[in-house]
Design goal:
single chain, Rossmann fold, 8-stranded mixed beta sheet, 7 helices, globular
Length: 227
Amino acid sequence: MAWQNKGTVVNTAEVQGYLALPQTTGRHPALIILHEWWGLNDWVKEQADKVAQAGYVCLASDLYRGKVAKDAEEAHELMRALPEDRALRDMKAAFNYLSKHARVRADRIGAMGWCMGGGMALNLAVNEPKLKACVIYYGRLVTDEAALKKINASVLGLFGDQDRGIPVSDVEAFRDTLKRLKKQVEIHIYKGAGHAFANQNNARGYHPASAADSWQKTRDFLKRTLG
């Protein structure tokens, strides 16, 4: 019988989210999972379960604090209303929660996000020097060199060349700046893929081949950087 992960809801004064644990006992590397503009919906929880099954403690942080969008208009409003300083505090709280968790190796914590969450993962990498790894699925990119200089985490970026919101030229400039700053960065740009190519619920933009390859590259990257 295949193992079915069963995550739990975390709701403390500091942290709200969904916690998924690996099947094996002992301490494991950990990931903060950051949701798309839709909020902490079932798809994000499924991704946390999937990553946990690969051997990581996963905390899917609820940046909207209980709200989940029903349509794109509501998602846009929720994203616009999210204060960046509060989101950063919530992500740092998630990092601190994981660093003290009995099942977590505190020196092996990363962040991964999609769309809005990809940009949030990068923002956490800029502002949390102990973060070990950062996976950005088509997220908003930081261009300020002074900000990028603060990153200690290894960075994996996964983008589509048909993404209208994140041009290939911006992705390449981001990559080149990190390389010039001697940061550990790996960028993949998928031909024929647009925004949200990894989400099968995105009926118009889901790109199965790119989704499968990016997941394998994510697993390989996490293995190298977090163990």
